[in-house]
Design brief:
The chain is of the alpha/beta class. It folds into two domains: 2-109, 3-Layer(aba) Sandwich (Cobalt-precorrin-4 Transmethylase, domain 1); 114-262, Methyltransferase, Cobalt-precorrin-4 Transmethylase, Domain 2 (2-Layer Sandwich). Helix content is 35%, strand content 19%. The strands form three sheets. The protein has a five-stranded parallel beta sheet, sandwiched between helices.
Amino acid sequence: MLTFVGLGLYDERSITVEGQEALRDADRAFAEFYTSRLVGTTVEELEAYHGVDVEVRDRPGVEQHPDGILDAAHDEDVVFLTAGDTMISTTHVDLRMRAENRGIDTRVIHGVTAQSAAAGLTGLQNYRFGKAVTLPFPYAHGSEGVPPSVLESIEANRERGLHTLVYLDIKVGDVPGKQGDEDEFMTGDVAADLLEEWQDVLGVVVARAGSPDPVVAADRLSALAREQFGGPLHMLVVPGTLHHLEADALCDLCGAPRAVVEESLA
């Protein structure tokens, strides 16, 4: 049996009760933290809190060489841990399909997602979000600025009056084009600055969703680009057309200037 468990958004306590029970009952636990990260804890703290040993796999160990995980799941009760919700990334869908193709039973225990947290913290209505995008570091896609596909998706959402959730890039360890071997997290101010085409447009930075001290700030992207929002993880939302309740929420909950918000009212 291979059980996929989402750990939630922030630390070792963010997991659901069902996920915690599956983790503690498992024979072995594997994890990856390159698609997202629990910034409020460490692997050692996760192990100590749940009383388990966690075997962390890098990208090649999950996507190219998953046999160690699958072989274990063929004979034992194995959990595979990820931050957030376990099936958000296609990496995890692929691993589940590989298991099923080998006759291994699978199960999914969901965790809180960044997308639901972004809607909840900003007051923007979840059903009015369009296609989400990921904003990479310029060095990561081999060009300056923002990939055209990202710009096109944001513009398509805006034309339909829909909000865009922008996931911000994470680089774990040493990667091509990057100096050093430290993890790197794109911040909301950097993301706002990169979206040069919409500097006068309303944006919302969500920092450390799921933590005891999340920060949510709304203003023009040009203003957000000059602010600091503390430690990771950050997300950026580019709102579309606003319902009056959403407009009030951005002002009351996110500190948005009323004059800026009114420009986006339906």
